Records
---
Amino acid sequence: MKDKLEKIKEEALDALKDLNNLENLEDFRLKYLGKKGELTKILRGMKDVSPDERPEIGQLANKIRGSLEKQLIEKKDVLQDKALEYKLSQEWVDVTMPGRRPARGSLHPLTIVRNEIIDIFMGMGFDVADGPEVELDYYNFEALNIPKNHPSRDVQDTFYINDNILLRTHTSPVQIRTMEQEKPPIKVIIPGRVYRSDEVDATHSPIFHQIEGLVIDKDVTMADLKGVLDTFAKKMFGEDTRTKLRPHHFPFTEPSAEVDVSCAICHGEGCSVCSHTGWIEILGGGMVHPKVLQNGGIDPEEYSGFAFGMGLDRITNIKYGIDDIRLLFENDIRFLKQF
């Protein structure tokens, strides 16, 4: 029995020396140390050994097993180091080479222009206000001097949730909410998403964006509105931009005006973008109606104010020469990555 054990040890050590890869190492373990291995087969014959010799044979067998297991671990470490060294030699990396930059997104053109408009008005002392997109009829219409029979309340134009709740059709409801929460002087702009029941085409969308402006203080006049809008237009479209106010009607301002700017494409010479007039309408505004001030809890005898509202989508199209509003909503990467 001792001779057999010693012989197995010598064979195993010789075989271990010749191993040169990790795959053969597992075969070696199974052959000599596994449950059906050579060493186990010898130990199964212990029943034929005399009781006096069994302790000595058992100790020898355990010693040989321990020695082989230790040798196996050491051999495995050596082979793993060699495998790693070979892999590194074949897969070396030149750390001086520039890395591959991951693809980066960019701001949406609406976001770019929105941020630019906010920066312009904040430079003139405006704060930014916000309000809910799901609005009460009172704030969207009633408080803004729009009576029950006004055509803009028609279900064909407005998305109603029920008789009293709707998706806001403009950002003007935030004017009333701001007046209720703050005391004059008030000077805010209100960017946000609005909803109207329009058919989708090159110039219309049921979802679009507006930026509202509101100033309330003592002795505010129409000239202040003209000065603010003229400053905005020059900063937005260039110092040579001119503005023009045309009389108009809005229920929540009196007097009211629509505001045109000289075409940023042809600089007033006339082109297809401005229908060869040299002017492009960009917003509407006027002096806040006394009833609107009263509904906001402000005394119209003591305070006056002006308000204006512009379509962010329209301003973006004018600034970048985009001729179809649908491009702003289709999320075509080929279009968006130009910005």
---
Amino acid sequence: LLGAIRHKGFIPWDDDIDVCMPRKDYEKLIKIFPDKLKNKYVLKSIERRNFMSPFAKIIDIRTIIDLKYVENKFENSLWIDIFPVDGLPSNKNEVKKIYMKVNFYRKLLILNSSKFKIRKGMLLRQIFKVFVILIAKLINAKAIVKKIESIALSNKYDKSEYVGAVTWGLYGIGERMKKSEFEKVIYVDFEGYKFPVFSCWDSYLRGLYNDYMKLPPIEKRKTHDMKAYYIGDDDA
């Protein structure tokens, strides 16, 4: 969304696409997506037992990736992330509490899949991080994911005035939108095509980034630290 509005396409230093949809549509997609679409694409989710996160991915099996700091047997191809949008309370303090809880379990899940890798500089800090990663790996990842999902589902989408991406909502209360505005669709330009976005895109981006048209400093223009390779079709 930010790339579409600010750059009319990909953010130059970014390397993935995120898609969101109401929880009921998200669950339907997981049920109806074929095992292998056009011999190219596979949907991964905890429900399909081929991914261990509280959201889904559609991957391109013609590619392979090497993630520098992540050790996860489920993440091995280029992807599009798909996030469920769930109900949120009208009370802002209650919304903040939900995101605080999810943020704790999300960090725990990230540490659970982190590599034991010492970076240059701040040796003591790096050693402490390795120790924390070791503790996190002792916790069952599936249990963490289920806890995140239970928090996200605590407010029913259909009965809520406000909604937002909860399971992987990195920006807390900034993710919160009026359901009526979220469900109203407009189209924006992205890499020469038109794609649907929610009508409240301006207030949403301001909630996440404030002045979203201003470019971040160079040191914050980060990618996923990965290498990607095209390996071709299975029958090639």
---
Amino acid sequence: MSLHPTLVGLLRAAREAGRQPFAACTPGQARESFAASCAALGAGPEVGAVRDLEIPTRGGAVRGRLIRPALEPSTPAAGLIVYVHGGGWVVGTLDDYGAIARALAARTGCALLMVDYRLAPEHPFPAGLEDVEDAISWVAAHRGDFIAPGRPLVVAGDSAGGNLATAALAAGRAAGWAGDVALQVLFYPVADCDMDTPSYGLPDDALFLTRADMVWFFRHYAPEASWADPRISPLRASDLSGLPPAWIGTAEYDVLRDEAEAYARRLTEAGVEVRLRHYDRMGHGFVRMMNHVEEADAAFDDVARAIAACGVDGTGETA
């Protein structure tokens, strides 16, 4: 199928406005350009409350942003989502991803905690990953401060955020706290460093994220000798068993499509329950375009159903 006409229009508008690809920018320029593009996509829905807090980590505290859905005072949140934003480990802020976070909270009825992990190249691998590991571990230990007993804890992320989320859960499996997580939600995650898959051969003029961009992101994140490390390329982990059930969403026009779908297969082969959703005619980052394409709404609805179907949290209590 061809790229959705709305996305074609967004790509054309970005190019006519002179937006440079990530690969042609410095990190600072890329951050400014990305922030402007996020703002242009519009705001998320109204929510009940928003507050910032500090999350302790081994590298010092990082900022978190807690979003409460708009619910009746007597209605508890359906669960808690720890959300790890994308941006190739280099760009993205809590403000840039506020629309996605608000939409997830509103659509699922869950409270949502965003994690402001450290970015490369100022803080290269494994700094951001350690922040995410420590944040999820801290939330798992203090979940009663955020949600009622028995409500599920969900870890979610998009793109590089999905990479950090699932890599952190692998560390949490070894440390013993990943069992507290009822579901991992991965929107088009970075799963491998192999840039010779068929989806990497898609035409650049139909992509929001190109091969050159991914090379740029990887080079800022870590030395090339480290790219095959399973903490960066989780598809290369020898053992994926024991990870939380997963919902994985992929897009047709996305260089990361093939590796994300391969990761879903590897999880399934390891005995992990996986729901893989492929969105035709969509491009990388499409859930940020929820104000423009119905498919983004469909993705949020599907995630909400997956969370509602969790049934039990990591402690075995009924949700």
